[in-house]
Amino acid sequence: RSSWLLLAPLLTPPVPVITAPPCSLCPEGAHRFQWIRNLVPEFGISSSHVKVLSSPAEFYELLKVQIKAAKRRVVMASLYLGTGLLEQELVYCLEETLEKSLQAKGSPDLRVSILLDYTRGSRGRKNSRTMLIPLLQRFPEQVRVSLFHTPNLRGLLRLLIPERFNETIGLQHIKVYLFDDNVILSGANLSDLYFTNRQDRYVLLRDSPEIADFFTELVDAIGDVSLQLQQDDTVQMMEGMVHPYQGDKVAYCEIANRRVMEVINSARTRQELLHAKTFHSSQPGSSLLSQQGSQTPGSLKPEPDTWIYPLIQMKPFGIQIDEMVTETLLTEAERDARIFLTTGYFNLTQAYMDLILGTRAEYRILLASPEVNGFFGAKGVAGAIPAAYVYIEHQFYSEVCYLQQQERVQLQEYSRAGWTFHAKGLWLYLAGSDLPCLTLIGSPNFGYRSVHRDLEAQVAIVTENKALQQQLHQEQEQLYLCSGVVSTSTFEQPNRYVKLWVKLVTPLIKNFF
Predict the structure, then answer these.
(1) Which CATH fold would you assign to the domain 31-39+304-512?
(2) Which segments constitute the PLD phosphodiesterase domain (predicted)?
(3) pLDDT digits (tens, 9 = 90+) for 480-497
(4) Quick one: which of 491, 513, 276, 493 has its CA closest to 398?
(5) In this predicted structure, what is the pLDDT of residue 375?
(6) 224: buried, middle or exposed (CB in 10 Å: 19+, 13-18, 0-12)?
(7) Which of 115, 358, 111, 344 shows the shortest CA–CA distance to 222?
(8) Which residues are catalytic?
């Protein structure tokens, strides 16, 4: 089925009226993706403001540097904050920066807003909450900690499901780290593994005030419908707000939808006005152009060659933008285009699998081998999760072979001694091109949870700049270098043996992990 048919009413361009599919609107290079701005705000920036990071250590050091340099705002959204020494150092950096702000003349300007998941952030006696309470106590006017609680975990279900298992119902899964006008988008959480030997993806957008404003507003919107952590480790909702699991579920979800869509639509309107203003100002003979002629070359803002589109997925609130855009990208990818897709947890939705198996582009899908799966060696039932992923992978590979698509759709397993794998996203190479012109990077895993249960955000980065395309290509190559191609013999290895009970249970529980 073509998701374009579902999107057609939404993606009609204003002027001129064109009825062709979105990728045909601007057939040349990166511009063919401008249809995305009919759904979300489009931020045009210079590629010189984009830096792709490659390692957990680089990510961690950048977080510390950015926190220490922040003057106005620190906004961090993550699944959780760990409790180790490296995480404590991050908290110390926040404390130090807040202290400096407090000592500055006049009222302190710095505001810190942290959004985490309630269930994951409350796990154990020492947890994300206990890590952050000292900041709340020391800087009550400057620090806000919001804990999102899914509206789907309520009533008897909430009472019966034990800690850790309750996280399967739904989570705050967005990962965005923002400091003044610098934004880091990633799939990495704020935990020591993600700072040392858990491979993920990370991109820094420097000096991007409009993008920083958007994500600040998005985190604020989710924060407003979340539980607020108090100095005594209790939580309470903002005054007048419907409670996520004690209040009316429909009313809560409607309010959340309205808050988030207000952020998306107001930013989209702002960017459209900015785009129109820039377009008219750049016409020959315009007053702005003549003004610019008298300016020094250094004062001119560089012409954008890169476009950022934030893609939000919050199915509990009825928001499915990321799903729609991803399906359309997969549907419209032309013959001989190449899509490199990676996920730490290979559990694609049926819709994504159907599109991969039924469309024309070449696919190279990178996934975790059992040994680098985050659940490898876990205690109890969680220890069987890598085997469940092997079973899902084997089923998909068998379908590829049955349809004789092995040349077009190739699976590759990431393997690296002493490391785990958590990278997700895709790179799109147009037919005949050696470099990608689009990447998706952020929190979604392309699985059932990402689409249906959790709060997710990623960005589509579209660029026509060769140097940035080269950065993205090198990132992709570096990840895929640590992988081996999956074949029939892969599943004959002793470590790929899947117990019968795992095979029987996997179809019943695959929508929860």
Answers:
(1) Endonuclease; Chain A (3.30.870)
(2) 168-194
(3) 999 999 999 999 998 899
(4) 491
(5) 72
(6) middle
(7) 115
(8) 173, 175, 180
